[in-house]
Amino acid sequence: xxxxxxxxxxxxxxxxxxxxxxxxxxxxxxxxxxxxxxxxxxxxxxxxxxxxxxxxxxxxxxxxxxxxxxxxxxxxxxxxxxxxxxxxxxxxxxxxxxxxxxxxxxxxxxxxxxxxxxxxxxxxxxxxxxxxxxxxxxxxxxxxxxxxxxxxxxxxxxxxxxxxxxxxxxxxxxxxxxxxxxxxxxxxxxxxxxxxxxxxxxxxxxxxxxxxxxxxxxxxxxxxxxxxxxxxxxxxxxxxxxxxxxxxxxxxxxxxxxxxxxxxxxxxxxxxxxxxxxxxxxxxxxxxxxxxx
Length: 293
Ligand SMILES: *[C@@H]1O[C@H](CO)[C@@H](O)[C@H](O)[C@H]1NC(C)=O
Known about the structure:
Helices cover 15% and strands 37% of the residues. It has helices at residues 7-25, 32-35, 246-249, 254-267, 286-289; strands spanning 36-40, 46-49, 54-59, 65-69, 72-83, 92-99, 107-113, 122-128, 137-139, 150-156, 160-165, 168-174, 190-197, 217-232, 235-236, 268-271. Strands 1-4-13-6-7-8-9-16 form an eight-stranded antiparallel beta sheet. Residues 113, 115, 119-120, 122, 202-204 line the site of 2-acetamido-2-deoxy-beta-D-glucopyranose (NAG). Residues 3-221 form the GH16 domain.
């Protein structure tokens, strides 16, 4: 057809082609219903919306809410965007963590401790190996986490665990098994997230209680992505896959170490490695081996 070669149609074709190229290079986020199911508050407290692109958790005086992944992972790079409970969120805790099950479980934690309006959230992190935690590090954020979505990531591979906020590494737990320090590598983990009442400890150590007149409290999630080795029936999807992807080999280079130090110097408010009052019997051995500021 002659009209197909008119200049406006040509540019439409060119535009369409450019669009195809650019969209094919974007890693599309999964739909929440593909990866997760609601485990708590499925009545109306937890919802998958926008065709599975958005998930909301809420908390009121009836219930909190939670979801978990169908898949178990044995190493993963997990990214999720979260917009935290706005306004007076004191006493609420929003969590996002990887965990195995059983009495000597492994766990990698992000927990967001709410606050009264205008006061900062605390980002609380922890690493459990074989049932033992006590590796808390806490941070303030350099932005208001309730105003927009921000990306929170866990990189867990054989070399290290890295916590990232908007791609900025904030914490690294290295695999130092060669020094006798345990590292999570034998137990597959699921991804969990929840919003619940923790006003006995969360805000100013439990001094500030939830103001239920502000409920429901709602946190929103979008753009979940997992680059992962999926564990199923005793085998890992990575065993048969020689091309594991860059995430599997990633450690922190010199520039990343500088970024971590910037965050830790300016935003870290608690570090188990320096809490000699709490750990009178001695500071954890990994603290001596890792470079801390
Ligand atoms: C809440 O704000 C207070 C300051 O009023 C601050 O000391 C505290 O660290 C903030 N965050 C939490 C979760 O308590």
